[in-house]
Amino acid sequence: MQKEALLVAEQIAKAKAEKILVEKRVYLLGKFDQSKNPDFILISPKYNMGLGTMYLRKEAYQAYLLMREAALVDGITLNIASATRNFNYQKELWEKKWNGITLVEGKKLPDSTPDGLTRFNKILEYSAAPGISRHHWGTDIDINGADVRYFNTEKGIKEYNWLTQNASLFGFCQTYKEKGGVRVSGYNEEKWHWSYMPLAKEFTSEYKKIISESSIIGFAGDEYVKGLNLIDNYVLAIDPECL
User: ∠ CA(135), CA(178), CA(235), 5° rounding?
Assistant: First the structure.
């Protein structure tokens, strides 16, 4: 009886561990509804640039609010252009570019880039494929838009300089700095994309351990995932300070 009890206990423990692992995979791939997750909170419309309903992890949101308050003292306003984007949301963004509904550099990609693999890589310059976006985790925000030209204006430069000098004090790191040196692959520089590191570091580490290329499926063009090494070349290709 004792051996049977031990066997049953081992089976229960194994089942629980497998359940936790499945739940982690689901989370890291963004295949959940953030509005129903108790770890997330609705972002006040006062801070979201009027771009609809957005959510963040509670810890990341509180850190953002503190950072925003500090920036206001220096005459800088930091609003959120994008926050949590689950798999389905990211899929919609991706497929609009893939199918030519959203223009990329003023062009419809099916016309300008008919080759699928080339088109896939073109979208990856600034947009994550569904399943590999850090925005799935509720730790990352785009601040004051997502436009290279804006951050080359006097106002944008001032805001970016404030962030580079102060964001780390609140736990935020610029995930995608200019490529070169130790960051030779991944997305182009994004001065607007900031990650809340107390949580994101853990999720980055877990992603590396438990997500494989075979999990990155379910969207237009996913047949090109194999061989692109998206995990190393994109998910993990971030500024070393953010690892």
Answer: 35
